[in-house]
Write a structure and sequence with these properties.
The protein has 4 helices and 7 strands; from the N terminus they run H-H-H-E-E-E-E-H-E-E-E. With 191 residues, the protein is an alpha+beta fold. The longest helix is centred in the first third of the chain and has 46 residues. It is elongated, with a radius of gyration of 27 Å. This is TadE-like domain-containing protein. Keywords: Membrane, Transmembrane, Transmembrane helix.
Length: 191
């Protein structure tokens, strides 16, 4: 059976070939462009949040600044990214012996756009290298990533979370231990 004349003409036609090629290639190029912009931006946002977390832990471990100054410093190191929507929890903790092991307990905690830790609650095992009676601070930052292009639903559901544990470098001495007491909190109970 021989193909009809319209089928033969269709096989020789090439007037729409460039439009078809364009329709196939453009979505791929747009996807590559969006990925080339979005992925480095997400990586950079994550690194800035990590830096903000360590900056806040360092600040509250060595001095007694107001929390507004600490939050402002975090925003400054995270620039050009806006972290005002980030949930921040600052915690002063102590190490205690319980059940044959060292655990960390919350002594005081403050938060911005998140919930402060409950005083006296157990954080978990004590940081490596700490002994009973040791004091440290912890800064936690959580922020949902705001994608520029809403085409990738996976990027819009990313939540970055960073925790920095820092030893107390300067603080007021209570019961023989230098420690930091966050606003509205109390010193850690003695060991």
């Amino acid at each position: 059976m021989r193909p009809g004349p319209s089928i033969r003409r269709f096989g020789r036609a090439c007037s729409g070939a460039s439009a078809v090629e364009f329709a196939i290639i453009v979505p791929i190029l747009l996807g590559l462009f969006m990925a080339a912009v979005e992925l480095p931006r997400a990586f950079s946002t994550a690194k800035r949040l990590d830096l903000a977390s360590s900056t806040m832990a360092d600040l509250i471990s060595s001095t007694n600044p107001s929390l507004d100054e600490v939050y402002a410093a975090a925003q400054a190191v995270a620039t050009p990214y806006d972290i005002r929507a980030a949930g921040i929890v600052l915690t002063a903790a102590g190490v205690y012996l319980e059940g044959g092991g060292a655990v960390a307990r919350v002594c005081s905690s403050a938060a911005q756009k998140d919930q402060a830790r409950t005083v006296g609650s157990v954080i978990g095992p004590a940081p490596t290298g700490t002994a009973a009676g040791a004091r440290y601070v912890m800064a936690e930052v959580r922020m949902r990533y705001a994608a520029l292009f809403r085409v990738f639903p996976t990027l819009s559901s990313w939540t970055f979370s960073y925790t920095t544990v820092w030893p107390v470098r300067e603080g007021k001495t209570y019961w023989g231990n230098a420690e930091v007491v966050l606003p509205g909190g109390q010193p850690c109970p003695p060991v």
